[in-house]
Amino acid sequence: MSIEYLKFYIYIYYYLWMDYLSIPVMKKFALLLLCFLYYFSLMAQLTKTELKNLDVVIKNYNQKNFDFALQSIKSLQKENNHLYYQYWEAKILFQQGDWNSANSILLDIYQFADTSFSVEKPNSVPFDTYYILDDIYRRQLNITSCFEILKHAQKAAGSNIDLQHKILSESQLCQNYQEFEKTKTKTKIEIAHEYSSTNNEILFTSSADKSKLVYALEKIEDQVAKIEQKTSGMFLSGLPKDAIVSSISVDSRYLLFEFENDIFVTSWQKGFWKKSELMPNPINTTAIEKNAVFSVDNRIIVFSSNRAGGFGGFDLYMVAKKEDETWGEAINLGSEINSPYDEITPFLAADLNTLYFSSQGHKNMGGFDIFKSEMDENLHWQEAINMGVPLNSTSDDFQFWLHPNNADGFLISNRNAQESKADIYKFVIIPEKEEDNLALMIGTVSFDDEAPIDKVQISISDKETDELVGVFLPNKVSGKFLFLLPPEREYKALYEAQGYLSYVNYFSVPQDSAYYKIKKGIELEPVVFYNPPTLLLNNKTIIHDIFFETNSVEITNTYQNELDNLSTYLKKNPQAIISIQAHSDANSDEAYNLDLTNKRALAAKNYLTNKGVNSQQIEAVGLGESLPIANNATTEGQKYNRRIEFKIIKKGNQDIEIEPIFVPKNLRVK
Q: What's the CA dihedral at 300, 302, 305, 310 to 10 degrees?
C-alpha cells in the first residue's frame, strides 16, 4: 500500500470515528463501502494479461536489468496498483540499493499481513516480504527490528514447517552477528578508493607484489549488464572478449580466467599473453567451473564447481600437478569446507595449509561470509571458521585476497548501507600477539650458455641444523623462482641440474625482510639474496666463507660442500693459491682467540690436503678477534665473527669467485 493509500485510510478512519456523531448513517455506510472496495481492489487476483506483463518485469529483474524492470512495474501500477506490483517494486529497489524506499513500500504491504499472505496463491503478496524486510534491517544493523519482523513472520506462518524452519534460520543469522560483534577482531578496513568506482566491483586479483592486478566492474549500459575489466601493469589483450579473469599467479606469469563456464589458463611471455588453453578434465566438466586460483608454486589449483556429487550448490575442489606435469584428480574438499549452499572465491594462502573462501552456509551472518580452514597433519581440512567482524558483514563478502605477509589484503563487499553496491575494500589485520611473517624470496636461475631451464631443482635447508625446508622448481621458460621462508634465520640454497656443477648459496633472512620489503617491484635486493643465484658452467667456481660454533674448530657437514668445491678447483688448477684467514668473536681473551683461529685455519687446510690438494697451494693464518664484521655485543653478531674467509692470491686457468658474507644491517659494525 502506497503512502497515498495509507493517508486515505487514516482520513477515512478519522472521518468515520472521530466525527461519528455528525455523520448521517447512509453517508457513513457509503464511505465504509468505498474503503473496503478500495482494499479488495488491491487484493484482487491479477488477470492473465497482467500476469503476462509482470513476466516481463520478472525476466528483466532476473537478468539484472533493474532500471528497465523498475520502469515497467511503475507503468503497470498506473493501471492497477496491486499489492503484488508493489512487492515487485520494493524488490527491485532493494536490489538497486535504495533500501529506504524498499523498506517503506514493504512496511505498507506488511499492514495486510494477516489477510493477504498466502503460500498457495502465486500472485498474492509473497511471504518473502518478511525476509526482505529482515534482510534490510540486518544490513542496516537494526537487529532489534529483525527479530520483531521475524516474530510476526512466525505468527503468519502458522503450522507451515518449511516456513518456520526458514524463519529460524533467518533469526540465527541475526544471533550470529550479535555474537561476532561482541568478539570483533582488531582489523582496519576501508574502501580502496584507488580501485573502487561507481559500479559494482565483482572481482579483485593481484600478483604477490601488487605490480600486476585486475579488477572487474559490473555496469549497466542500455539495460544490459556488462563486465569491464581494468588493469594495472599489464594488458588483457589476447583474451576472449567475454572472459572474466579469476586470478593471477603469485609470480605474475600465469592468468586463470572463466569463459563459457569453463576455466582457461594463459601465460605472459615476452610482453604478450600466450594463446590460452582450456584446462583439461577433471578441472573442467559439463557443469560450471569458476573462481580458479593457483597456489604460490603454481602446482595446485582450487576452484568452484556445481558438478554432480557435491554437497549442494557450488562446492570447492582442489587439483594438484603430478610429477609428469599433468593435472591429477579433482578432489572435493569435503563437508568441513562445503555446505548445502554455495562456496565460491577460494584463496589458498602461501603456507599451502590455510584456505580462505566465501560461503552462504556454515555459521553465517547473512549473504556470503568469508571463512578460514586449516589443514591438519593428516591432510584433512578442519572446521571452517567465520572470519568475524569487521572483515565480514551482514551483507555479501567475497573475493578475499591476502598478502603473503598474512597482515593485509583486499576483499569485495556490498556492505555500503547507502548504496548497496559492491566495492573493493582493503584491510590490515592487527594480530593479538606478535607473529612471524613469511619473507617472499624471489630470484632467477640461468645458465651461462643460455640453455633452456629444464629439470633444475632448488633445495632449501636450515644452515644451522641442515634440516630440509623445501624443494622448489623454477619456471622452465623464465628461470624465475619464489619461495616463502620464516625470517631471522640463515639458509643454504642448493641448485642442481644434470650436466652442471651444483651451486650453493648461503643467505640470511633478517627480521625486517618480511614480504613488504620486496613488494615494490620484484628485485634481487639484499633481503632476497645478497648474490642472485646463478647456475654456472664448469669454467667457474664460486666459494662461500664458512662459520664455526663457539670455541669450536670443527667443520660441520653444512660447510664441507664449500671445501669440496674448493678442493676440486685447486686440483684442476695446480698453479692457483688460496689464503685461508680465520677469525673469532671477542668472548675470550686475545691470546686464546688467536690460538683458536690458528686451529680453525689449520683444520680447513687439513681438510683440503686430505682431499688431495697440494699444501703449497694453501696459506693458512689465524687473525683472532682483530677484524670483526658484526657487533660482538650480541649473540647474533658473534656468529658472523666466528668465520673463515677465503682470499684469492693467484688464480688458475679457470675462474673462481669468493662470495662476501652478508651481514644484516642491524648487526653490522658501525
A: 90
Positive or negative torsion for Cα 324, 327, 330, 336? positive
Mean pLDDT per 10-residue section of the chain, whose length is 670 residues: 44 43 49 43 67 88 88 89 86 86 84 49 66 89 91 85 90 93 87 74 69 64 55 63 82 85 86 82 94 88 95 95 88 95 92 91 93 88 94 92 79 75 84 60 63 68 79 68 73 70 68 38 26 39 84 84 87 90 92 93 93 92 91 86 91 82 76
CA–CA distance, 118 with 156 (Å, rounded to integer): 9
Grid coordinates 666466528 are at which residue?
642
Residue 310, C-alpha cell as written in the block: 557435491
Residue 74's φ and ψ, nearest 5 degrees, are -65, -35
- Which among 359, 251, 353, 267 is positioned nearest to 304, based on CA atoms? 359
Residue 454: the pLDDT is: 63
Distance, CA of 592 to CA of 368 (rounded, Å): 68
The string over 1-35, giving b where at least 16 C-beta atoms fall within 10 Å of a residue's C-beta and e elsewhere, is bbeebeeeeeeeeeeeeeeeeeeeeeeeeeeeeeb
Give the CA dihedral 104, 110, 112, 118, nearest 10 degrees.
130
Q: What is the pLDDT of residues 312-339, one digit of tens each?
A: 999 999 999 887 888 999 999 999 999 9
| Closest-CA residue to 256 (of 295, 228, 288, 220) | 295
Q: Are 240 and 259 in contact (CB under 8 A)?
A: yes
At residue 283, the pLDDT reads 94
Q: How far apart are CA 27 and CA 551, in angstroms?
A: 114
| Predicted pLDDT of residue 379 | 80
**Is the dihedral angle over the CA atoms 364, 365, 368, 369 positive or is it negative?**
negative
Are 304 and 293 within 8 A, CB to CB?
Answer: no
Euclidean distance between CA atoms 645 and 650, whole angstroms: 15
Helix residue ranges per DSSP H, 516-634:
557-572, 590-610
Quickly list DSSP for 246-279: EEE-TTSSEEEEEETTEEEEEEEETTEEPPPEEP
Give the pLDDT of residue 342: 95
Q: What residues contact residue 618 under an 8 Å CB cut-off, 6+ apart?
A: 570, 577, 578, 579, 580, 605, 608, 609
CA 505/CA 633 separation, integer angstroms: 27
CA distance 315 to 336: 11
Cell of 368: 556470503
Answer for the pair 192, 425: CB distance below 8 angstroms, yes or no.
yes
CA–CA separation, 494 and 470 (whole Å): 11
Query: In DSSP terms, which residues pair with 367 in a beta bridge?
Result: none
Best CA proximity match to 579, nearest among 620, 544, 624, 547: 620
CA distance linking residue 426 with residue 402, whole number of Å = 10
Alpha carbon distance 282, 265 (integer Å) = 15
Is the Cα torsion angle 358, 360, 363, 364 positive or negative in sign? positive
| Chain CA centroid to CA 253, Å | 17
- Four-CA torsion 615, 619, 622, 626, nearest 10 degrees: -170
Q: Which cell is 540 given?
A: 667457474
